[in-house]
Amino acid sequence: MARAMFDYTIDVLQRVSFNLELFSKELKKAVKRLLPHEVKELRIWLKKFTLDKPELYPCLQIIE
């Protein structure tokens, strides 16, 4: 079940990545909902995902 929530979170973040405000909002929700080890995994995913999306760099502060 927990893995399903992580996968769902990734899906949602990818879908709203066109908008910094929505992306930030969903990322904040994800940090609250996910387990600590999933948040670490999300941090790794986010760093890779934002490499070619400089407009999303401010969101890295949310998860650090």
Molecular structure report:
The longest helix is centred in the first third of the chain and has 14 residues. The protein is built from four helices and no strands. The chain is 72% helix and 0% strand. The mean pLDDT is 93. It has 64 residues and is mainly α.
Report helical residue fraction: over 70%
Overall mean confidence score, pLDDT: 93
Q: Structural class of the helix and strand makeup?
A: mainly alpha
The figure for the number of domains is 1
Summarize the structure.
With about 60 residues, this protein is mainly α. It has 4 helices and no strands.
Which descriptors apply to this entry?
4 helices; 64 residues; 0% strand; mainly alpha
Write the layout of secondary structure elements.
Blueprint: H1 2-15, H2 20-33, H3 36-49, H4 60-63
